[in-house]
Amino acid sequence: MSLLSVESPLFSNKRDEINKFTASVAKEHQLLHSRELPMTGWVDYPVTIPAEVVSRIKEEAANVRQIANTMVVIGIGGSFLGAKACCDLLRYEPREDGVKVVFAGWNLSDEYHAELLRQISDDDVVLCVVSKSGSTVETSMAFNLFKDHLMRKYGESYRDRIYAITDEKEGLLRLEAEENGYKLFGIDENIGGRYSILTVVGLFPIAVQGYDIEKLISGARRAYNDLNTEILADNLCYQYAVLRHILFEEGRYVEAFSVMAPHLYVFSEWLKQLFAESEGKNKRGVLPFSVRYSTDLHSVGQFLEEGHPICFESILELPYGHSRLPASYENKTYKELSKIVCDAVYKVRQENNTPIFRFSFKEPLVESCGYALYFFEKACAMCCLLQGIDPFDQPGVEIYKAEMLRLLKEE
Ligand code: PA5
Question: How many CA atoms lie within 13 A of 344 on its CB side?
């Protein structure tokens, strides 16, 4: 795989155990690609995304650039994390003159939103509100707040500055958007929040920030082609999925997604959401958590090396490329030192029998990012299906929402 490499001694050390899953992986692969399983619209989407959707996203992104220098993306969970992960990961890559993209509605902090409002008060702003259901409380609250800001600043023309991304057929947000003439994008009913990054949900904010979304899609398309085989021996994504399952059965209940650079951190948060919300059901599931290196080598690193052996680690590194800084230690640049640290962690974990995977993004990074997004979505779905878990629902999340709404009515 040229756009994302995956290494682990487990691929050879556990070959016999992996091979036992050959038939079940083939069966689940066929199911995933059959279009019979609900919420699997994302599986073929990198190759079926309509050209007119891509053109419209690019056109609207260009419109945003004409009228604004800041776009506030409002959403929570799968409706913002993928876009934020990509905007952060790509932040040092070349891009067209873009618009600053900031995120609201993903928390309920009064102070956070007050500060954000202050920061954008002199900017020319557009809003992009993203909610598949159209009724998520955190999103609605922030949308009301920023809509008021637009009304005060732009009067009646505030409507021209709102993009709504929501279910293609129904929901309160769609209704409001239609009544008020906001610009609307539909989310395929067969694609859920945490599998929606490669749809308009992620692509629009990424395009507004000035990145070439066709390159991102082409990376995902490469992943689609490479991973569209039911033959387990030829499919590293499925082998990783099988190994997660095997490790869980061995008592490795926690997966540390460790990232080698701060701008990869939100990507690990996206992974955390993808795996936890998909797999944490029926009293099963590996608990994913995000670890930031190098700082966490001086904290969680101790646990991963010598603590209770419930963890395995998936370390994520970026291409090292040219150094931007003259800084050096023992004649090594930051990039060289970072690679040495990654090598060291990869080696000592093996020596200490902590299972480890090493995921390396490649150049060009935009394509590699698209590849990785698709790779992990597919691995996650396969891992769930192998355990008889529905990867696409979130009944536990609905429980808190119902109780919150009950309390709201009581007030
Ligand atoms: O993956 C999911 O389905 C969730 O994380 C949702 O994305 C999240 O709850 C937000 O939902 P909505 O887009 O309906 O506002």
Answer: 11
